[in-house]
Design a protein that fits this description.
The structure is a homohexamer of 336-residue chains.
Chain A (H helix, E strand, L loop, with lengths): L7 E2 L7 E10 L9 E11 L4 E6 L7 H12 L7 E6 L4 H6 L23 H16 L2 E6 L5 E2 L3 E4 L5 H14 L3 E4 L13 H7 L3 E6 L8 H17 L15 E10 L4 E5 L6 E2 L4 E6 L9 E4 L4 E7 L3 E2 L4 E8 L4
Chain lengths: 336, 336, 336, 336, 336, 336
């Protein structure tokens, strides 16, 4: 079905050197008959060797990865690398241009649309092109996320257990190389027969080793997290033998977690957090209060965690509606 | 002109005890003929004594003060206080309900609309009611702000120099009592003839001693800043003799600053900060980069500060347009 | 200031016969440079005699009057009348075209904008044109309203007490002629020095005898109320000597009321009415319940009337926000 | 496919007692990553016995059923019933919260989306959950509707003829128990192989006996229709043996109708009705006039009914566009 | 699948004479339960003979065809024609009423939705009805387009090469009869097995001989192009033997072109064209400049054509975004 | 009042050389506290001599002037000129960025807002800054317009008769230098006491000699008109002695007209023009037809011109509403 895509690519991915251009997603609108949506794509290639696909902006309001890939585009000299680095700094470009999680063109949440549809909405066409054209070219994929506008995460690597021992080892190598403070290790899924609608599911279906990262959030770039991101990406390239001239500094080590679940508001109002990221959470503990500002004399309601562990993510917006996640709880993979 | 207001008050401000109700701002709409916009108002009174007016939500997306005043509404027992505490937790209620800086009803930025207009927009009617009815009742006013959705401030008290020596002393007393890490001291304005369109301007015109506070931002509540806010408000009440049973803990001290100015983006794009709040800024230094994500091969542009000092505030949103403030620079009032 | 209006009139109001055209309100927009907003105007004139101005659509979603004036436009033969009937079936035409209480062009509630402004928004220009050009031409004005989208009224005439005994008599004559089931008689205002921002205020300032009518509501035409409206208007013309060939049927009589006030929701939710129009209300009685549909196990809140009397109007929309009027209470002018 | 649903339920439907919670429809948005849409669900259970599913808010602006189910939630004591009552007072909760017929999240008209899709839009996920999880648990289903914002119906039960004689008898028992003034009896459809995209179609496919009701409309609650609704629901529970302590009052009787069809406007304008609900309609008769308010001198156009019978429903909005139904005509099932 | 359509037709297409009515597309909305979207349809028939289907408004903002078909509706006397002319002046009526390329109801670009879906969105239902009901009735189809709001075309016929020699001859006959200045001849596609999602694809799948025309654009009617359009349509009817009384004037001749491709902006800004329609374009030539108005001191960027030929179409809007087509280049089918 | 403006200027207008920067209009929004709207400003100065102010983008969708001023910014070498050229290529920058006639920030039509308000909306602040700061610096002002999105004009100079003989001569010199095909000469207004709310009114009040130009329209740049514009501006600078090195080519001559008035649609629908720009119009002649596309069998209505002359401007949009200008008629100032 790969040949079915209506998306074309401005640049020749088989050519050596640094090339930047657009993936052209046909999109005919009132203000643009015969036009296309342009997704910036960068290829930096130097002969044979591993191919790594770096994606950011799958959710448009997750910015650290977008800045990191723009910086790598200029920083990585073709002659300094081995193999090929393909960069997509704004994978769902309409969402990224608008600063929104989902596409303003079709409402699509790209990370819920794989394997996509070559004749569907622009977001579905993008998912299909990645699943059938770009990801199959790669050996390794790194998909850069963050908490976006509504959540904050500490710098956290996300990965599965691997489809087999060899992939498990590669995943651990990537985790060690990226060297972020936390890793969220999935306890299920991840095989070649994955039905997940995420980019990582697409990688798994294609047999491409894939890690994700959550790199802050709140709809803004954190300087220090961005530095950790760029450091990690250079270390990953070096660990894969793709950046031989790089000298990595000593690793800081990573705390491995399993997710317990998210905790949600059951009343609308103003959210006052009682627990910070990294703090211990007991089952039955209140993660925060929801104030009824219209009636300040009424007692606020508590948002009770049914889970025990530590707080891995927290809400980055002051107001909550019923059903909004105010936090995510995780426990140590290897409890002390 | 006070008698001109079309706003009425649900509760009797002259009565002792704790009372909560609404200020009723007449507003006739397609879905509500003969309706009103309700601004929650709380009066906690115990006989004669000082009257303090506490306002939050003048900008609707500044939340720490809103939560603090909702908490004080329930915490302050009438019998524990002397005088009267009047609380307006959502001063521009339509903006606060919508989580917006400005009113979705009329676009009004309430802190630019004083002295208001009794026959104008709802925001102008609110400004007029404060200027002519509520503020004249008060001896002291504390107006709680934060950076809102687009900026972050560290906990900072704002004040003028005082219209005279007595007020200067009262302002210093309030600053010492609030005990926030920073104080931004205005070097001009503030007299009885002020033409400022802010709530503080209204207080100055009425001869009411007024301080403001910037308490975080980013459109979200910070737990630790909220704790400093509540601690400060209790200390202020105690310092004014209004909360005699309270025992304040030792003060931390406040660093006094004068503002130099804001620094603005001159290109649109993704903003990568290079300086954090509290760090030193040299004149000519870049506060950050603006990435052109459509053309990642183009160099980002720098946002140069013409000012020297420290960074007092920074942008809390990832994307910038031409003219957006990416930071505010201030210098020590008493340089070492 | 009358000569200041930028509004021009398509038809010659001094000419005999039936003429229809537009009042042209200059309005230059992105899609219409040098264009105007057209307000249909009709003049039916037969020599000297009284001039009556009939207005509908001052609020755009109040439809009975609009249909009645469209019908009268075709029904009234110039040769059958004495004097002049001027009809404005869509006084705030942008609002009426959109089916909204207020103008989608400028948000204006026309009945709160008199005396208007010849250089202001379109709604303000319309108010000014009525106040300075059309109303001064008239001897009598009838302004047709209803509850609009958010309220229902039974057929009710509204009037003041008259600036003097002669006008009081004329107002009573108009009330008796219109012969609606209810009359809401204002106990204040109405003199030549009125500062009211309503069309009736404009009439009072011009010394033009004016009645209003509330003719149903709910954003829809009631067949039987429309019939009462047309019957009343024909009877009014006959009573003024302007429709000599008409033979009125016997009067039904009118119950005179004084308004007590509106009763408002203090919680948002789904409103369940407990009292119907015309039923007796005791002070302290609940006019209805507000259900919290998100938490159906929580008890609904009551909307308590502080007033005693009968229910004159009730809300015509299922959902309520804080501050929405759920009903209006009035008492008999001459209690039994 | 039932196991496929991504919707989870807060409460245990197999437990005795009264339980309220949310159905959680996963929905990840710009302001709520990892969030869900909450549909209130109530279970009132007392041991074995019939299971009845009561739904309201399938169309969000149909309110009588929503208020009735909120009231029953609190009124029905678990110990007073036999079997289980499952209540969904806001079946398409996003539409109901917004007061709209269709969902503001995805535009979905829930009653046109069955059998739904477990990976589709929120509205499609809800339809699928009802079709595969909730409806199969039930013996009887009552789906409460009204004319919504654009139509008015008198209190009317809707039912098919039954898939077989036993179901026909059960349907007649439900009709007699509900005891509304009218019943609209479908002359086709309704079997186990139904392809209808309605909730009733889903019930038919599951072999669940189902009636609907139209209970007013106009986007507002009618007090007397709400009383008839609650009376009818209590009578239905009693007739099914689920509310043994209830003593029904004598029945009023129901007039059975078959639908002829809807009648539509062919011009846009202001609609003036000429026929009221319950009145006789001749084929070729005008149901009303459409006024061209821009040109009041032009004759209005008639909306001609091609059908004979009585008027069962009428439009509840003043303005019409081409294609809007201005009324529905039905004839007596057993003509005199 | 034809019988599956939920669209019904007001008029009897098998009857002789001139009939106008609506295709009724069921569409139930918040403001119109049980309503439909009306697509005007006209049938002018005089006994047996060829059936021609004339469509305009497939894109709602392409107006010349819409005016031409409205004019033909009144001009063509049934007694003057042989066979049947079916006219759809607003094929995607919601888009045409709104003056938009795509439907405001569902966002659908009708000419990308064939073969449609009988249970899909309104636009998909329309496509399906044409594909399965209207087009199969026709022998010949003429689909009238223009550049719409964003492009300008000179009067240009569009056609394929024909599925076989007989159709090739019919297509040439239609081209010669229409006699527009240009013809854009497709070099591929067009067979009975077409998978194209256009109306022409639907015609090809049905074995109906079909031509399109591009007739100006810019979202406005050009008087002279409209005259050429009407002249061409009369000539086509005459050439098919359907308008025997017509005497065509001498032909002007048509220049045949093959398309090379569209040329797109790679920067956003204000577009200054350097080449006009009909002028020669060299490969590598700039078609225009994109000005950065925020920084007028920066040099504008060129939009380079990779193609040689003549400029067939150009952008009709001043501002461009990345990916907007600023022109289309074509070459002579038979180069001199 | 000049000192009252809150607008500041990035560049020093008193300095020699070419300088580009922003006028900073303070504008505090939800996404930009302490931000400003940037209006690009350019100063090119070489010692003493005349000061000319060139403005474009007073209406944001009028593009020829914007492109011309961007081009002049780069083309005019400071050493080649005498005196000072101040360029404002996007005078109402928010409107120009959005491609709208009026500002999306405040709805303001800048050319109806002079003399502005230093504390008003951004558009009013801009008007005030021009009226009190920039225009008083100038000797001559040229304000570049076009028909915008809704109208087309041929290249036309606009001017008054001059406040006195000297200014009349200067205006004629500017007209002859600009050398456009048409000139629209105003027969009234223009004195020092002008109350006009236009930029030209502001120039008149300041005693600054001012001409305007209408340079096409339709929301797009015409290549040939842009060339005439640049040619004219260079000739004007040369004629004023400011561009001594320029050698103007021979003049083409200008046809002088007086305006009769605009002609407006009285029905909504699709507009078919019958008269082209430059053609003769008789009083009573139809300028075009308005088609009722919903009822193509109904005759279109004519738009009758009450004026005789030639057509100077015509509508550039296909659809019309009641009150839209479909054309403007003018007569020769010196009839043959």
């Amino acid at each position: 079905m790969a040949g079915d895509s209506m998306i074309s690519c401005d640049i020749d991915l088989a050519e050596d050197g640094r090339h930047t251009g657009f993936l052209r997603v046909p999109h005919s609108t009132h203000v643009s008959a015969y036009g296309w949506i342009g997704l910036p794509i960068v290829s930096i290639r130097n002969g044979g060797g591993p191919v790594i696909l770096l994606t950011a902006g799958v959710h448009g309001d997750e910015y650290e990865g977008q800045a990191a890939l723009a910086t790598l585009t200029r920083e990585l000299a073709p002659e300094a690398i081995r193999g090929q680095v393909i960069l997509l700094p704004m994978t769902n470009a309409p969402a990224a241009r608008a600063g929104l999680r989902t596409s303003p063109v079709d409402g699509g949440n790209l990370n819920r649309l794989f394997p996509g549809n070559p004749r569907g909405t622009p977001s579905e066409m993008i998912a299909h092109y990645l699943e059938t054209v770009l990801i199959p070219r790669a050996d390794v994929m790194v998909d850069l996320h963050s908490g976006g506008s509504s959540l904050w995460y500490p710098p956290t690597l996300l990965r599965g257990g691997g489809a087999n021992a060899a992939e498990a080892a590669r995943l651990r190598l990537l985790q060690d190389a990226f060297d972020l403070p936390y890793a969220w290790v999935f306890t299920g899924g991840g095989g070649r027969g994955s039905t997940a609608r995420t980019a990582m599911g697409a990688a798994n279906r294609n047999g491409v080793t894939c890690v994700m990262a959550e790199l802050g959030g709140g709809g803004v770039i954190d300087r220090d997290i961005l530095a950790l991101t760029l450091r990690g990406l250079r270390r990953v390239l070096h660990a894969l033998g793709m950046l031989p001239g790089h000298t990595p500094d000593p690793a800081n080590g990573t705390r491995e977690l399993h997710a317990e679940g998210s905790v949600h508001a059951r009343d609308a109002g103003l959210f006052e957090p009682l627990v910070e990221i990294g703090e211990t959470v007991r089952a039955g503990q209140s993660l925060g209060l929801v104030h009824d500002r219209d009636h300040p004399d009424r007692a606020p309601s508590d948002v009770i965690s049914p889970f025990a562990g530590i707080l891995l993510a927290k809400r980055a917006m002051g107001l909550v509606e019923i059903g909004d996640a105010v936090g995510q709880v995780a426990r140590d993979a290897d409890p002390p």
